[in-house]
Amino acid sequence: MDSQLKYKETDKMSDLICENYTLLQVMSRFGLSLGFGDKTVKEVCMLNQVDYRTFLAVVNFIDEGYLRMDDAFKNLSITSIMNYLKQAHIYFLEFNFPSIRLKLMQAIGTSEDNVASLILKFYDDYVNEVRKHMDYEDRVVFKYVDSLLKGELPTNYSISVFSKKHTQIETKLTELKNIIIKYYPATANNNLLNAALFDIFSCEKDLESHCRVEDYLFVPEVLKLVKKLSDRDE
Questions:
Q1: Which percentage of the chain shows pLDDT scores above 90?
Q2: φ and ψ at 200, to 5 degrees?
Q3: Which of 16, 5, 60, 8 lies closest to 38, judged by CA?
Q4: What is the DSSP secondary structure assignment for residue 9, as one 8-state letter?
Q5: How far is it, in rounded angstroms, from Cα 177 to Cα 191?
Q6: Which of 27, 86, 159, 185 is the most buried (most CB within 10 A)?
Q7: What is the pLDDT of residues 44-60, one digit of tens each?
Q8: 125-184 pLDDT, tens per residue?
Q9: What whole-number distance in Å separates Cα of residue 53 and Cα of residue 42?
Q10: Exposure string (b/e) for 144-180, b if CB count within 10 Å is 16 or more?
């Protein structure tokens, strides 16, 4: 692991979270729960059977604003990254999106108001689009990677297909945010609407982070495994 990384295996996990609370989401998606006392990052990861190098790669990559590319991190666990991505999908689809919708409804209602109806429809359409995107990754991409991890080299799919089709799914949230900020009339409950907007801002950033981990940490590691298996079969 790069000695210049901000967070290291010997750091206390509690210090890492207190310094950057947004990393709580990362910790949760690696299956790490609170209550770790004064244990170090490495100790907490090992107790939970998580590859600590991969955990540190993800937290440093996110904390530093995605400045380091794939060649800055070595010997990452594809299984750990994939489990992280799967848990992120569950979080977005089963918790974050429903939570934001509930807040939007509480703020703007489901009345006959045209703008309110349009906002909810835009939001629901967006969530359906993201659901399809994540479902494709769960069913096709991760299944393909599972085969690679078993030493198989499927010929009916390539990770490059995923890379080419991988769009920035957070873009439409920017549009929704702008619609609410610019056009929603002052009849809404401002405190509730601001809370919903805050969650949309946070979700937008989280989705961007999710896509960056896929593009710059996950895909490069999968490509290395494909090359290894291809070389083996030659």
A1: 53
A2: -70, -40
A3: 16
A4: T
A5: 16
A6: 27
A7: 999 999 999 999 999 99
A8: 999 999 999 999 999 999 999 999 999 998 888 888 777 666 667 677 888 888 888 877
A9: 8
A10: bbeebeeeeeeeeeebeebeeeeeebbebbeebbeeb
- Tell me the CA end-to-end span of the chain in Å, nearest whole number: 31
Q: Taken in order 216, 217, 221, 224, is the CA torsion positive or negative?
A: positive
Q: Residue 183 has which token pair?
A: 């056009």
Q: Which residue has the tokens 């900020």?
A: 181
For tokens 């937008």, the residue is 204
What are the tokens at 139? 């069913």
pLDDT digits (tens, 9 = 90+) for 116-141: 788 888 899 999 999 999 999 999 99
State the maximum Cα–Cα separation within the chain, in Å, rounded to a whole number: 68
Residue 121: CB atoms within 10 A of its CB come to: 10
Helix (H) or strand (E) segment spanning residue 179: helix 171-183
Residue 40, classed as helix, strand or coil, is strand
Which token pair is 198?
A: 């805050």
